[in-house]
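Morning!

This is the sequence you dropped in the shared folder:
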Amino acid sequence: MGQQRGLILVVEDNTDIREAVCLFLEDSGFRTAPVSNGREAIDWLHSQEAPGLILLDLTMPVMDGYQFLRVKEADPLLLDLPVVVMTALQDCSRLLRHQVSECMAKPLSTSTLLDAIERSARFA
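The structure's back. Tokens below.
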């Protein structure tokens, strides 16, 4: 593959889904950083380079997606990072009060995922 297209933080507690998403993104030329819950994501964001996009599951242990969004939006260093939610929940209306670029239903199609990344990501 040619030039890498940027870093995506993948926040997903299901190991199989997380690995599959990361593998697909890496095959598509992106760098990925996989974490398994919102707390790990916040810790990672405070210690690493800023990603161009955060792919976020909502239903996770330790810190779920909603809790993650509240912490992220209260932190000036993280506030402007774009987030695309990937969820098995059918209703994304609870996300309206949060700064979320898109909400995609699982199972994800690869074309839907790439389209959402193209619309939402901010790579340097």
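Headline: The helical segments are 15-27, 38-45, 65-73, 110-120.

More detail when I'm at my desk.
O.
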